[in-house]
Design the sequence.
């Protein structure tokens, strides 16, 4: 499904490059009672800027519009736990999340939700940021994939639709913040040979 440059990947193909990134970095063990998808966003900002926001497991509110507050327990490292307060309007107020993987060189972050007053049980996500050229300038291809249990009373399609809507909002906000920072940074165009 393609909408505005968000591409939901639940079995559909979109490009060889993106497909390879998904095969390499976005592996989820999807069980029968779960749904999974990958979403793609092209951002007109260089990888270092986008990654500087994504990698901050301790400060998701820098770009995630539904997060009002985040408290990290301990130092920022694999295994770190954060408690996130969610803004009103969503069917939740808190979420407890653990940083599962953080690769600064490959620009990969993975987290799991293990508590909170919401219906996202066994939720796990992977976010990767990849360099690309957009309009002759350094840009980023961001891929976020997830797997989550389908709550009782919901279908796989309903569950995926809800989670994809949240991720799309987060990715749009990530693009807005990153692109604003890129304009302030005045990133130079890439010269083509």
Sequence:
């Amino acid at each position: 499904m393609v909408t505005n440059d968000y591409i939901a990947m639940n079995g559909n193909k979109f490009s060889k490059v993106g497909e390879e990134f998904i095969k390499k970095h976005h592996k989820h063990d999807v069980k029968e009672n779960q749904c999974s998808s990958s979403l793609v966003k092209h951002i007109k900002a260089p990888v270092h800027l986008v990654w500087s926001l994504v990698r901050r497991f301790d400060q998701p509110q820098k770009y995630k519009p539904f997060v009002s507050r985040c408290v990290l327990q301990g130092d920022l490292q694999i295994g770190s736990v954060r408690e996130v307060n969610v803004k009103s309007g969503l069917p939740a107020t808190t979420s407890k999340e653990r940083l599962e993987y953080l690769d600064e060189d490959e620009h990969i972050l993975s987290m799991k939700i293990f508590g909170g007053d919401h219906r996202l049980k066994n939720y796990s996500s992977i976010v990767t940021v990849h360099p690309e050229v957009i309009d002759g300038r350094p840009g980023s291809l961001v891929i976020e994939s997830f797997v989550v249990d389908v709550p009782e009373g919901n279908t796989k399609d309903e569950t995926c639709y809800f989670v994809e809507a949240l991720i799309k909002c987060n990715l749009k906000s990530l693009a807005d913040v990153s692109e604003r920072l890129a304009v302030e940074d005045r990133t130079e165009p890439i010269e083509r040979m």
Observations:
- The chain has a mean pLDDT of 86.
- The chain has one domain: 16-186.
- The helical segments are 16-25, 47-54, 156-185.
